Amino acid sequence: MAMAASMSVAGTAVPAAYVEAGTWGKSSTTLDTCSLLSCRRQSVPGACMDAAGRGSRERGLAAWMGSRRCPDCFYWSMSSSVVGRRGSRSRLGARLGSAAAGAAAEQFLSGQRLVLDPKKEEEEGGFVPTGSDVGCAPRQQRRRSRMMVRRVVRAGLREVQRQREEQQEEDSAAAGENGSWGGEIFQSTSSSSIDRASLATMVSNMRRKAPKGLFPPEPAKYNGPKLRVAIVGSGLAGMSTAVELLDQGHEVDIFEGRPFIGGKVASYKDKNGNHVEMGLHVFFGCYNNLFRLMNKVGGDRNLLLKDHTHTFINRGGGVGELDFRFFTGAPLHGIKAFLSTNQLSFGDKVQNSLALATSPIVRALVDPEGAMQDIRDLDKVSFTEWFLGQGGSRGSIDRMWNPVAYALGFIDCDNISARCMLTIFAFFATKTEASVLRMLKGSPDNGLSGPIRKYIEDRGGRFHVRWGCREILYEEQLDGSAVVTGLVVGKSTEKKVVKADCYVAACDIPGIQRLLPKRWREWEFFDNIYKLSGVPVVTVQLRYDGWVTEMQDIQRSRNSKSAVGIDNLLYSADADFSCFADLALTSPEDYYKEGEGSLLQCVITPGDPYMPLSNEEIVRRVNEQVFKLFPSSRGLNLTWSSVVKIAQSLYREAPGMDLFRPDQSTPVPNFFLSGSYTKQDYIDSMEGATLSGRQASTKICQAGQLLYDLSQSLTAKAAQQQEQQISGESDQQLQHQKEEDEEELLTFV
């Protein structure tokens, strides 16, 4: 029975959506798309097509796209049909403004019936000429558009199927060779059937069609002499290095000056049992090295998958989205996300598309290695300079890319290297799951650094917390080179010298700059490190007595006994904190508390203006900005807060700085570096830190025999010097005794 209705979204009156449908199939093919786009005129032509009636062979998919010319711009519309197991059919048509597009898509994706309209569609092509739609596009143009889209969709589906078959073959071959974890291709699975704590799906395979250095193959078994390795720093880079070295049979000691481990991913409990974090930690689907590490140490169930959307919260409670959910994968899912986003105006979308379409991202689809080289060459310019030069708009920078840049590198597009941004864009464009987000189900100490620490200690590794490295001892050789002979470590007023076969500095930028001997700056390699700097960051945690991101009903947000709100990472272009999340929703294991509400974790980047402020003033300012983003939360009360300031966090990825990033091997043969700031193709991130640890371990093992021989030589030399010193002291004592005897004899005479 047909019925008519209309709806209103965000205060905008919208014509009724109409559907002419049979019974919805109970087990329909997953084609989760209803992408409705519009321009500033708030009008989209209707479109529908019956896949079963047309005899489509693409698993029940039918797509139709109509275009027309108006005085201002082009209008586009796209919709799809779903055919059930029992052959039932559905026709979706819509004439919606951009404000309603997201609501209609959500209604369609959730399997709900859309409101029905008694209007009959035109027999030819399923186009419904209503109102201003009549005569806006010639029939021939519509037919050509339909033919074009059919060809594109069919070609896209064939390519997706081919890629899946190739990937399955490669994964099977890789598993047969070494049984190692390498990431699984995304399977089109309904959201209800996905295990959100699993790393078996929704993870990119960075071994395939990706630059070679991003996910190294499993290392060959080490057959050299066992080494004693001393590591300074217990962050992800240091622990990643330790895990790899222990797996190769080496002996590892880790020295950490703070009372807890984890570095920038550390967390600890305050006296009241609240978990305090160093920052907000988000795991992209392309973090293969980090996922491999978590699988290895048994932490693979500690992450929770989020919806495949990137959400922007605007002043006044407005919500914008990059919705990557689509019936097919890269690159079409990204094109759909950027064309359908309501975070940008139509003009900004057009200019944004123009800039990205002429970028190395396109080359990455067919030549990932060549594209990565092109991206590296763009390190000398800022993202803004590159983007505007390619035809992009300032509006896209301000409303979308700045929040993303702040989240990735802690600085805005005017100051961040184009290399940094385009590296991530290339992954998003070529890997369907690269843009998928995960967050820890609890605190980093329990979910990330804790399992890694247990793995290290179970295999004989040792952590020495509160023992910070105060000095590197070294000897200069006749040829002007140097070798490390030991580390001076201290705990309170205690000091001791640590000897090893090999030494690794897994520090952040200020840490390595303090640690290196001043004389080593004579080498350009080490002097370049002092040209790098970190970005100040302030992390603020705010606990409320209700649910901030519920955004609808203040009474519900205050009185709800269950968690309500947005369970995902959030961006904002209208606050000093560019990214934030409600940890009580995203990481409930340690942050949800019965009878309490949201725990917002807000990251202020760069934090320069906030560093001199008191914690109370910082909390006041951030809380005020929260209320501007979520007006419905103004009646909530703040019950607890914490502020963590880091003077230098991620290294400042400004234009031209990539040149100064050091390799893991150094001019000092038994001294190595590990850290996300060192040379690797990921940005400064958790993935970059993990990859740097793998690279450092590989280079240590490659030099294993040389390091062992050098250590033996230094030990023998030290023993000889000690023997000579003892012998010299004995000779001095004999000479002194002889002089005393002669003096005594003269006295006697």
UniProtKB/TrEMBL annotation:
GO terms for cellular component: chloroplast; chromoplast. Residues 236-700 form the Amine oxidase domain. Keywords: Carotenoid biosynthesis, Chloroplast, Chromoplast, Oxidoreductase, Plastid. One of its GO terms (molecular function) is 9,9'-di-cis-zeta-carotene desaturase activity. Its EC number is 1.3.5.6. Residues 122-147, 160-189, 721-749 are annotated as: Disordered. Its main location: plastid. It catalyses: 9,9'-di-cis-zeta-carotene + 2 a quinone = 7,7',9,9'-tetra-cis-lycopene + 2 a quinol. InterPro entries: Amino_oxidase, FAD/NAD-bd_sf, Zeta_caro_desat, Zeta_carotene_desat/Oxidored. The keyword GTP-binding does not apply. Residues 721-735 have a biased composition (Polar residues). Pathway: Carotenoid biosynthesis; lycopene biosynthesis. GO terms for biological process: 9,9'-di-cis-zeta-carotene desaturation to 7,9,7',9'-tetra-cis-lycopene; carotenoid biosynthetic process; lycopene biosynthetic process. It is an enzyme of class 1 (oxidoreductase). Residues 740-749 have a biased composition (Acidic residues). It comes from the Eukaryota. It is found in: Plastid, Chloroplast; Plastid, Chromoplast. Catalyzes the conversion of zeta-carotene to lycopene via the intermediary of neurosporene. Belongs to the zeta carotene desaturase family. This is Zeta-carotene desaturase. The lineage of its organism: Eukaryota, Viridiplantae, Streptophyta, Charophyceae, Charales.
